[in-house]
Write a structure and sequence with these properties.
The protein has about 400 residues and is mainly α. The chain has 14 helices and no strands. The chain has a single domain, classed as Growth Hormone, Chain: A. α1 packs antiparallel against α2 and α9 runs antiparallel to α10. It is globular and about 50 Å long.
Length: about 400
């Protein structure tokens, strides 16, 4: 138990972790606002699901550039500048809502713009973890980072749902702006810097992009991890992409029910570090990944046939538990196999594959739910995730303990 929270002993990690949780809370509150705003503007399932695609697309297109910048420049300053962009996107969306000129296309466009800041910040934050904590606590720190992200899924949706219910989606956007400012202050205060040994003085961005792409491609362990990240991301995206549709169409619910079900997902996610702290000592990354993928596949199939809120909440809790184990296992494997000078680019390549899968999946499952049925969309995602486990025959995840 103590080992799972050991990284919090380091002041810089603790400060930035707490601030990142707050920022994630704001992002999820805004996600509730944006998704429910889309439900109010149009009841088309594909457009509602496209909100997640708009939030994931910047990671696909900007992540490798962001990882390159994180390897070349000070990661703390990179995070600060990126968070300013989040504030810009959220502020613009809030203003357009206040003047009542927002349209479904604008919701998608401004969701994309705000997500650009998060896409630029994420590789710098992930690469900073190994700058802040020693290797003996790295796996626990990566898990805590994932848990912090998913803990925000408990608080953020609850706050977002409450704000949207009491006021309107504009309040959720304002909340995101406020907590983003808190993250800026924490980054300004944080007393850590990227070691000079990780810099590439005089290296141009274009050259760094080329060398980073070559490193990722030539690294055998990365070639094992990246296909699994994409194959997991495509079906896993169905959970959050279709949840607003599940709430509004199957249960005729409002924003508060959407927040409640997201909280169920987050509760399962927060329970995962306690299991991971014990299971890591006994099971390989491949075993953890495959077991969690099987659980998430079952959760998706259950959501496809569920006709009660209680059963859906239980399925989402199991899904949240499995989701964190899947993506934490992948992230930790990348952290251990990447050389320090290429860590930002390696992590960004992983994020590009994982979030690319999330974006593609959101488009596919939203279209399937709109033109065929919600049940088939959930069931197909679960079946594909289960089938993707066959990749372990050709791309078994490396064991970070042996790297």
């Amino acid at each position: 138990m103590a080992a799972a929270f050991a990284p919090l002993r380091y002041p810089a990690f603790r400060t930035l972790w707490i601030a990142s949780v707050l920022a994630g809370t704001g992002s999820w509150a805004q996600a509730v606002g944006a998704a429910w705003l889309m439900v109010e503007l149009t009841h088309r399932a594909d457009l509602v699901a496209f909100v997640q695609s708009a939030a994931s697309a910047p990671v696909l297109f900007l992540s490798f550039l962001a990882g390159t910048l994180a390897d070349l420049y000070q990661r703390r300053l990179m995070q600060m500048r990126a968070q300013l962009w989040v504030i810009f996107g959220a502020s613009l969306l809030m203003v357009l809502c206040l003047v009542e000129v927002v349209t479904p296309l604008l919701v998608l466009a401004l969701t994309f713009i705000a997500a650009m800041g998060s896409a630029l910040r994420a590789p710098a934050w992930q690469a900073s973890i190994r700058d802040i904590v020693p290797d003996r606590d790295l796996a626990a720190a990566v898990t805590l980072s994932s848990i912090g992200f998913n803990f925000a899924r408990i608080l953020g949706p609850a706050i977002g749902g409450l704000i949207v219910t009491v006021t309107d989606p504009t309040g959720a956007f304002a909340f995101n702006i406020a907590v983003s400012i808190l993250l800026l202050l924490a980054l300004h205060k944080a007393s850590y810097e990227q070691p000079d040994s990780l810099q590439e003085p005089g290296t141009g961005i274009r050259h760094a992009l080329r060398t980073g792409a070559h490193y990722v491609w030539s690294n055998h362990q990365m070639r094992l991890i990246l296909p699994r990240a994409t194959a997991a991301g495509i079906p896993a995206s169905a959970v959050l992409a279709l949840l607003p549709v599940l709430v509004s169409q199957r249960f005729s619910g409002q924003a508060d029910l959407y927040g409640y079900l997201l909280c169920s997902f987050g509760m399962g996610a927060v329970a995962s570090p306690f299991a991971l702290a014990h299971w890591r000592r006994s099971y390989s990354p491949e075993t953890l990944f495959s077991g969690a993928s099987s659980l998430l596949a079952a959760s998706l199939m259950c959501l496809g046939v569920s006709t009660t809120i209680a059963l859906s909440a239980f399925a989402l809790m199991i899904g949240g538990f499995a989701w964190v184990i899947i993506f934490t296992t992948l992230n930790t494997s990348v952290q251990f196999c990447a050389e320090m000078s290429y860590r930002g680019r390696a992590l960004s390549a992983y994020m590009t594959c994982a979030f690319g899968g999330l974006m593609i999946g959101s488009l596919v499952w939203g279209s399937l739910a709109e033109h065929v049925s919600l049940r088939l969309a959930f069931s197909s995602a679960g079946a594909i995730l289960a089938g993707s486990l066959l990749l372990r025959c050709a791309s078994k995840l490396p064991d970070g303990r042996d790297v």
